[in-house]
Amino acid sequence: MKTTFDRKDGGLVLAHILFAFGALLIGGIAGLLQGLVKGGTITLPANIGYYEVLTAHGVLMALIFTTFFIIGFLYSGLSHTLGGSLLPLVRKLGWAGFIVMSLGTIIGVVVILLGKASVLYTFYAPMKASPFFYIALALVVIGSWLAGFGVFYQYRYWKKNNHGKLSPLFAFMGVMTMILWQIATLGVALEVVVQLIPWSFGWVDTVNVMLSRTLFWFFGHPLVYFWLLPAYICWYVVIPKVIGGKIFSDALARMSFVLFLMFSIPVGVHHQLMEPGISHFWKFFQVTLTFMVVIPSLMTAFSMFATFEMNGRAKGAKGMFGWLKVLPWGDVRFFAPFMGMLFFIPAGAGGLINASNQMNAVVHNTLWVTGHFHITVGTAVVLTFFGIAYWLIPVITGRTLTKRLNKLGMIQTVLWCVGMFLMSSGMHIVGLLGSPRRTAYSTYNDHPDAILWMPYHVAMAIGGTILFISVLLMVYNVISLLRTPKGETEYPIGEVSEQAHPTPRFLENWKLWIVITVILILLAYTMPILELFDSSVIGSKGFVTW
Ligand code: HAS
Ligand code: CU
């Protein structure tokens, strides 16, 4: 394995990472504004709508920041672990994907800021945006497919040249993440191309609302694992190296990713439990599969504890929690992802609550759900991505992480945790008190319940402001990382523990996993989707509610 990073690949990776942080900055400004509005602290100028800002925030943070960062990270890991550089064709696909996605992003953001697409990041019909908003989204998806093809091509090439060898764990996980993405995006592509674009152009009058939402969640749930799996790659592969330990089990890590592929798609209906049009049986069926997809996360938790414990014992730690003491607390490459893991414990528990039909009735469409996704994707995932950026940028630019920047990184992480703790706790509690999500400031004619919510909304605004400071510091850190002294920084890839069992070869049987995945999808979705074509379903015309 080469120690220095291929310069050309570095350029491609850096372009993705910097674009991602640009999106984070603009998305962060939008987040600050809407937090302050909701807390009753400011009012927006008359020509800027709350839902416009909210759409910009959701799209830029959840869809753009994540997708660019993930593709950059996966390409870096593929380049490093599969031969030391990307094939020229793969690099071309990467750049083509980058250009198409960037174009989509720019068109999308312009349309949103023109006030023509205040439909939020889930763009639920029958709210109707400008057709160019949907076209922009389609471009982002097509660009990501090009990047995905690059990932598959690089992997296949390596496999052909390393016949019979087990692929590196990072590469295996990267391919799994992209297969998941490729299958999941078929749902949203169908929704956008077949339903929303013709409807928003006025070529057809009505849209089948439930079908569009079902296709959306076919994509929308696995989307959250598309965010999570790259963070898990860091937890499984990078963190053991950073703490000076070993990967607990290669086989377990691969198995958990196989389970994610199988079970993360046929479960989207758990976002529609409170909606009519899907029968109880299929809701029950998909909720059962939802509980299956929790298992690989529990395996991950187990594996992380085992890695920490083994590492501790090897360094002479004693007692039940002695392993905690020997972890590198002052190293932001460890500290940021670790705080992400910690947040993910209550975040995952919240997910189990959401997925339980009766409890979903209490939390659905309340701020509880907003709290849930700010500690899953907004903390567990994002803090891990930040942790990655602190070493990845030096690796690809041939620089080093200075002590000063490491310290600033620690401060930035602490700010994120404090801000998010305030904001997400406020959201969870006030959600249980009934405060709805996706609503601008209102005291509902001074209704006593709504008055009761206000202190929590203020706490959210304070938390949001602290988070914004953390975003600013992160962007400052990213820019500073481009100017640190030249030097060699290692790409941290852990080795598997000697005590681990050898990895069974069937784990790389891609055909088998894809066939099982397709069967599960057909089982879970064929009937519910056919039911939505029932002749009694009437379509809806479009509404511009803003
Ligand atoms: Fe979720 C809604 C169910 C995980 C994101 N989710 C959302 C939305 C988003 C989202 C964005 O069933 C809102 C969509 C919208 O706008 O409407 N979610 C789940 C379940 C899980 C789950 C069952 N969600 C995630 C992840 C996300 C994410 C991950 C992003 C990355 N979610 C739901 C449901 C809804 C929902 C319903 C719809 C709600 C509604 O009504 O609208 C599970 O995958 C969670 C499993 C996780 C665990 C935790 C394992 C813990 C680990 C950490 C170990 C820690 C260590 C450190 C090692 C069981 C791995 C320890 C150290 C020490 C010192 C202690
Ligand atoms: Cu989900």
From TrEMBL:
Stretches assigned to the Cytochrome oxidase subunit I profile domain: 14-483
Q: Which GO terms describe its biological process?
A: aerobic respiration
Q: Which keywords annotate this record?
A: Electron transport, Heme, Iron, Membrane, Metal-binding, Respiratory chain, Transmembrane, Transmembrane helix, Transport
What CDD domains does the entry give? Answer: ba3-like_Oxidase_I
Cite the InterPro entries for this sequence: Ba3-like_Oxidase_I, Cyt_c_oxase-like_su1_dom, Cyt_c_oxase-like_su1_sf, Cyt_C_Oxase_1, Cyt_c_Oxase_su1_BS
A Pfam family cross-referenced in the UniProt record is COX1
Q: A single Gene Ontology molecular function, please?
A: heme binding
Main localization category: membrane
For the keyword Membrane, the answer is: yes
Cellular component, GO annotation:
membrane
The regions listed as transmembrane in this protein's record are 12-33, 53-75, 95-114, 134-157, 169-194, 214-239, 251-269, 289-311, 332-353, 373-393, 414-434, 454-476, 512-530
| Compartments in which it is found | Membrane
What is the membrane topology noted in the UniProt record heading this document?
Answer: Multi-pass membrane protein
Task: Give the matching PANTHER family.
Answer: CYTOCHROME C OXIDASE SUBUNIT 1 (PTHR10422), CYTOCHROME C OXIDASE SUBUNIT I (PTHR10422:SF40)
| Similarity field | Belongs to the heme-copper respiratory oxidase family.
What is the protein name given in its UniProt record?
Answer: B(O/a)3-type cytochrome-c oxidase subunit 1
The scientific name of the source species is: Candidatus Cohnella colombiensis
